[in-house]
């Protein structure tokens, strides 16, 4: 459990050196741990490998202890035909649900694979609230001078990703094996989330833009490109939680 005491330099000493350098650059030392987050996004999304890019807007709320998020997005693949999407990890379980016009369910996923996939999503997005990298449920393992493996263990779930940093100690990509919905089944495939446009926001240097892709035998399938348009920490708005 994270407390409200400013993070001392000593908390970074047990970490692999590239992770410690990254967190120093982010500005976590001397800051109080972030507890809740609210952000807005805008971008584009592909519903499938053969579909066109569709406009996307979203709002997302997080809590850090316990780890949870709810992402509510509107994707418009066709004029006047919005798809409302809820992607979430709450109470230790994941949910993906998409409804045409917000009424007609076109996709829904629950279960162990969804739990794992949504916990992985939460982990990759910690780059936007970096004090959470020091949470008790997270552990790090050194790989080399520019990368490390990070693992979340929460309740009965455990997920791991490879984190890569650039020559300026900024996080640039994360990669993990994530369950991907293929028809009525799941396929375990490499999932990669490159990020860029590192900027000082609310006292922390974080990436504001990025994309998500599946690394498939036929080539990379980039399905999301977006940027953060608004971000708040530990406000009344960021503390709101929805099921």
Characterize the structure shown:
- The chain is mostly beta strands and 243 residues long.
- It has one domain (9-233): Clam (outer membrane lipoprotein receptor (LolB), chain A), CATH 2.50.20.
- The chain is built from 2 helices and 14 strands, in the order αββββββαββββββββ.
- It has helices at residues 17-26, 112-124; strands at 36-45, 54-63, 68-78, 81-90, 93-100, 104-109, 138-144, 147-154, 157-165, 171-182, 185-192, 195-201, 204-216, 219-233.
- Strands 1, 2, 3, 4, 5, 6, 7, 8, 9, 10, 11, 12, 13 and 14 form a 14-stranded antiparallel sheet that branches.
- β4 and β5 form a beta hairpin.
- The chain is globular.
Protein topology:
Layout: H1 17-26, E1 36-45, E2 54-63, E3 68-78, E4 81-90, E5 93-100, E6 104-109, H2 112-124, E7 138-144, E8 147-154, E9 157-165, E10 171-182, E11 185-192, E12 195-201, E13 204-216, E14 219-233
Antiparallel strand pairs: 1-2, 1-14, 2-3, 3-4, 4-5, 5-6, 7-8, 8-9, 9-10, 10-11, 11-13, 12-13, 13-14
Put the structure in a nutshell.
The protein is mainly beta and 243 residues long. The chain contains two helices and 14 strands; from the N terminus they run αββββββαββββββββ. Strands 1, 2, 3, 4, 5, 6, 7, 8, 9, 10, 11, 12, 13 and 14 form a 14-stranded antiparallel β-sheet that branches.
Gyration radius over CA: 17 Å
> Helical region count?
2
CATH architecture: Clam
Helix content: under 10%
């Amino acid at each position: 459990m994270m407390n409200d005491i400013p993070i001392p330099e000593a908390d970074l000493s047990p970490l692999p050196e590239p992770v410690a350098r990254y967190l120093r650059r982010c500005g976590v030392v001397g800051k109080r741990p972030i507890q809740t987050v609210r952000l807005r996004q805008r971008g584009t999304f592909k519903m499938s490998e053969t579909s066109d890019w569709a406009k996307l807007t979203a709002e997302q709320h997080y809590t850090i202890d316990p780890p949870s998020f709810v992402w509510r997005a509107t994707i418009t693949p066709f004029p006047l035909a919005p798809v409302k999407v809820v992607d979430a990890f709450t109470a230790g379980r994941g949910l993906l649900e998409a409804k045409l016009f917000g009424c007609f369910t076109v996709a829904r996923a629950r279960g162990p694979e969804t739990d794992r996939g949504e916990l992985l999503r939460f982990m990759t997005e910690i780059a936007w609230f970096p004090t959470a990298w020091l949470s008790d449920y997270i552990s790090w393992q050194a790989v080399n001078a520019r990368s490390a493996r990070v693992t979340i263990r929460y309740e009965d779930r455990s997920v791991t990703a490879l984190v890569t940093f650039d020559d300026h100690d900024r996080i640039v990509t994360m990669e993990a094996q994530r369950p991907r919905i293929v028809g009525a089944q799941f396929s375990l495939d490499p999932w990669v989330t490159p990020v860029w446009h590192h900027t000082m926001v609310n006292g922390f240097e974080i990436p504001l833009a990025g994309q998500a892709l599946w690394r498939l035998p036929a080539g990379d399938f980039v399905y999301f490109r977006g940027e953060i348009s608004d971000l708040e920490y530990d406000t009344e708005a960021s503390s709101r939680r929805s099921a």
